[in-house]
Specification:
By secondary structure, the chain is of the alpha+beta class. It is built from three helices and seven strands, in the order E-H-E-E-E-E-E-E-H-H. The longest helix is centred in the C-terminal third of the chain and has 23 residues. It starts with a strand and ends with a helix.
């Protein structure tokens, strides 16, 4: 298993950050691992919704079938997906209002046999991608 996380304070209200975070057509503008949604994002963002995302991590392309596991508007979005080689990926975005700013935390987890072979490199690459994603997200909403 490999666990990763990143956190940033974004100088924008939680509602504005949430709107960008859940605007799937513009996902590629800030998400450093995202390459496309072959069938678009989820039709309706709700618990149980599914969607497919093409991603790139450590230079390798991957297709992940995501399911929304937790959804609380302006506060939390958790998704869990199945990727190649039996890898299970979990991502949780949490937002905490802090006056006119928002603290955004992204936590990720990778499990599966293939992960154990490259856990260290995966952690480094994924952490860098999360940090870059938060930087880009902040630039779009601030």
């Amino acid at each position: 298993m490999a666990e990763v996380s990143a956190e940033a304070r974004i100088e924008a209200p939680a509602g504005k950050v949430w709107a960008r975070l859940t605007d799937f057509p513009s996902y590629g503008e800030w998400n450093a691992t995202h390459t496309s949604f072959p069938s678009g994002g989820p039709e309706t963002l709700e618990t149980g919704a599914t969607f497919t995302e093409n991603m790139k991590l450590m230079g390798f392309p991957a297709e992940v079938l995501w399911t929304v596991e937790e959804l609380e508007a302006d506060r939390a979005l958790a998704i869990r997906g199945k990727g190649p080689m039996g890898v299970i990926v979990s991502t949780r975005y949490s937002l905490a209002a802090d006056g006119e700013a928002t603290t955004v935390r992204i936590e990720g987890e990778f499990t599966g046999a293939a992960v154990s072979l490259m856990a260290g490199k995966l952690k480094d690459s994924a952490t860098a991608a999360l940090t870059e994603s938060l930087r880009k997200l902040a630039g779009l909403v601030a």
